Amino acid sequence: MPNISVIIPVYNVEPYLKRCLDSVINQTLGDIEIILINDCSTDGSFAILKDYASKDKRIKLIDLPENKGAGYARNRGLEIAKGEYLGFVDPDDAIDLNFYEELYKKAKETDADIIKGNLILFNLDGTTTLSTLNEKITKNGRFEFSYEWPSAIYKHSFVKDNNIIIPEDTNNGEDVVFLYRCLLKTEKLELLNSVNYYYLRREGSLYSEKMPPYKITNTIKSLSYILDDFDKELEINLSNKDYVLQYYKIIINVLEYIRKKCEDKTSKLECINKSIAFYNRCKRKDELDMKLTKWVPLVFDMIKSNDIEGIYQIYTKYNNGQEYFIATLKANIKKDLTNV
What we know:
51% of the residues lie in helices and 16% in strands. The protein contains 14 helices and 9 strands. Helix 9 packs across helix 11 (285-295). The longest helix has 25 residues, at 213-237. Mean pLDDT is 85; it is low at 329-340.
């Protein structure tokens, strides 16, 4: 059994692919298997994959007959993976050469289900930003780990025993669904700040300033899966406080997509509609009302009254949350904002 199975879906990333593969095949942890899934690339990616596979016996190459998206490709990799732990790398990203060795050592020391390293965001112009997510997880708990999923490894038996898979009908945020499904099933999460995953910021990526409407729609679908999973696990693993807080964050995330990512009014209105739907499906709406109207009074008053246009005006008028809160105070909305 390999120590780690590394799953890499590939679709039209020829300019970045060799850098990614070099960082994986040259890992100081040698006992890994590398599963490459070509998702019907139309550029030179598949030729690169075949060349690397011919030179390294650890590589298993899958060539899909049609493009099905990253979720489908990763699930095909999960089906054949043999490693004790699972790692995921996007084909335009890279990792420290000791990335998996150090994470695996931590895994064996702690027997954790999830071991997360650090992440560095780098841009095409060469500038970089060091993530502070690990600090937030340490301070606020495991559910802060709501992105950066490939910066971790996951115990294979844990994933398999809990039947955790990646949704295949959405191509934005499907990785976060996998991550939340893992977090819902475990409290055994360890952090390691000494090794880095390098996330390439490209147009249309998670960190892009704007996203096209279809990516927004797919992200909302992924958030729906997460809420479904919270519903299923509520009585087993979650306290009411955790449940309410996560619903709050998911609704806010959708509204933030409106403000930050959507360029056209149609997309923004669609996101607002989904936000209202998320609110209405909450099983503990009374508790949600108490929390949300305390934190963000005007917006959630509008959500409860289905005031789509009003929310649209709020989130197009103000550039950031601070401006909004100042404006609500000036308008003499007498709500308790002490916990904002």
